[in-house]
Please model this.
Amino acid sequence: GRTYDEQRFSPLNQINDKNVGELGLAWAYSTGSGRGHEATPIVVDGTMFFTLPWSKVVALDAVTGERLWDYDPKVNPEHGRNACCDVVNRGVALWKGKVYFGALDGRLIALDAATGKLVWEKQTTDTDKPYTITGAPRVVEDKVIIGNGGSEYGVRGYITAYDAATGEQVWRFYTVPGNPDEPFENPELEKAAKTWTGEWWKVGGGGGTAWDSMAYDPALHLLYVGTGNGSPWNRKIRSPGGGDNLYLSSILAIDPDTGSLKWHYQTTPSDTWDYTATQHIVLADMDLDGKPRKVLMQAPKNGFFYVLDRETGELLSAKNYVEMNWASGVDMTTGRPVETGAGDYSTGPKLVFPSGHGGHNWHPMAYNPQTKLVYIPTISLPSLYVPDAKFEYHPGANWNTGVDFAQVVALAKMAPLPPMFGTLKAWDPVAQKEVWSVKHGGPTNGGLLTTAGNLVFQGTGGGNFVAYQAD
Model:
């Protein structure tokens, strides 16, 4: 993200909309893997650091492409069974001469940035449970912050802070409550437990894994973390008596010193569609209604673009940035989406927009303070949801969603699929409207970088690297 606000904006303008056409290939590096590549490279003092499938780390000379060192954490291949969406990794963090990254098997690892030699490693997860790490850590005030994944398989999500120098655990914040018959880890979870019913801790652990997005405001001293879907997805199974199921699909503002919760905003109460709020969080300062505001912006899977006051969590605006049918809008008084019923698959199959892939997924968006636009790699793709009438919880390397995927496949074969495509959208977060867009042939396309040269860069699912005029 370049900076703590995660804007993915480069202030450099030597390459701009007048000369970008002169760019050509300088060098290429073959990674030797045909699996999913999702990392954002980081370049520091002429060295490029990035991760590969199976959590491998590489350091290259950024000018020549020469390999300086690489590190293989030697993840047991059997652990790939626990990864919902391939053995990917989204990158490293750098701090005071060390490289930090999470391994698929739940380890947090620190390397010497100059040599690639191991400094320390910590097992952050219970190895008897199907946890994974695919997200990049963040370093805040000499603490390395890391979450995890695994909600599809049945785990309880949490975020942990470790001392950057020693690897010792400083604090841990669980995103959903555990067994209410046992002591709560903190008061926030006692409050959250009142929004759950049934025995969720036995039928999937609750979920809420923080598998990707974070941002930090040094002035407010707040760490922002996005949380994921419920486990199982189907809320009628997960929490049969109803309830919002805090803190699923939420943005959490956390004190990075103590791990205590300062505020939360839940984008999708009692989520039942895999509408995570783990998508990219961007911080910016902008004028709203004639007043300067410190805002937090997110385009999570559920299809709404949110602008929040990042000091208080107050909802400032929310509008849909893709086609949707599950909700008609967001109630600005309560902050809750207004469900239409079109997404209620508790009694039978429903075709829902957007899909569980989201209107936007892990591919990072970017904000340009010069154009004052947010650039979003959006997805236009519905999901068919069919309730699993014979659901039984199977702990371990089995999907536990409460959705009958065999019936989904069978029904999908009986009717033509709706159009599926992706779009690069330039979004005005003040007016909450699209300014311009570029339609792509496929639904899944790369994350974004915007620059002071009036440019937006994107890699497409079709294999092209493209520069667009940011304005």
In short: The CA atoms of residues 152 and 338 lie 26 Å apart. The mean pLDDT is 97. DSSP finds three helices and 34 strands in the chain.
